[in-house]
Amino acid sequence: MLPTPSTSHVDVNRVYEPAEDSFLLLDTLSSVAESSFLKDRFGVDLESAKDAGQSVSPLVVEVGVGSGVVLAFLTRHANAILGTSSLMSLGVDINQYACKASGQTVDLACRGLSYGSRDGSDSLTTGLFLTSINGDLTSAIRPGAVDLLIFNPPYVPTPAVPQAIQPAGDIVEGGKRREADEDANLVSLSYAGGTDGMEVTDRLLEQLPLVLNIGRGVAYILLCAQNRPQEVAQRIRQWGSLWTVDVVGQSGKQGGWEKLQILRICRSS
């Protein structure tokens, strides 16, 4: 079993704390079936990649990176999961505190300092973390650049999706109450998904055909039962014959909305 990166340094009052959904992603991505799939897709030798017109360094992007536990896991265990240590990883989050926290999480994991002692981390098994961008979904990413996209969205059904409050910075007016409002807003952005819990996810799905690599792009998106994942999968299949979608991970209660599923969405040339 691959060790899980530590997030003990993360301020959970401002950044989403790893929970069942996070760990389901870790378990799914590192499972024998998915690791085999990813190795077949990305674990190629340099000459084969060049012949196919692909970058030898796949770009892994986690949208809504939060604490960074998933991105750190993939980057640290790049060779074990994807069959290559040449990957580059990038985080994106609308929460500036999540960007900072995720960078620390990945850095600690890749230096082998995330597990209480050095775990033998080295450049032969670990990918290259670029940075975490403070931005809205994939708006800052070049079209066709993403080889592997991970998205654990705000999936809880709520009356509306909250608007992000700009950090107060050095403004002291309102004191602790203003700070508390900001913190509550930041946490709500990580879970509040609006109607059917799908408003943010629907925006991301609209961007997938543009941002995923044409030849080998793949996305893993987590949904709960009230998101109606089977209907989501059917919508994606209507994009055309180049697209496939499968349920590759699931957990949680069978009878309630808490049941979680992970969809793997692929495109081919």
Please give the largest β-sheet.
Answer: 7 strands, mixed
How much is the average pLDDT?
86
Unreliable segments (pLDDT under 50, ≥5 consecutive)?
none
The residue fraction in helices comes out at 25-40%
Order of helices and strands: HHHEHHEHEEHHEHEE
Query: Rg, please?
Result: 18 Å
Q: How far is it from the N-terminal to the C-terminal residue, by CA?
A: 34 Å
Structural class computed from helices and strand pairing: alpha/beta
- Oligomer class: single chain
Strand coverage percent: 15-25%
- Could you give the order of strands across the largest sheet? 3-2-1-4-5-7-6
Topology of this protein?
Layout lengths: L19 H10 L2 H11 L3 H6 L7 E5 L5 H8 L1 H5 L5 E6 L2 H15 L17 E7 L13 E4 L23 H17 L7 H13 L6 E7 L4 H9 L5 E9 L8 E8 L2
Parallel strand pairs: 1-2, 1-4, 2-3, 4-5
Antiparallel strand pairs: 5-7, 6-7
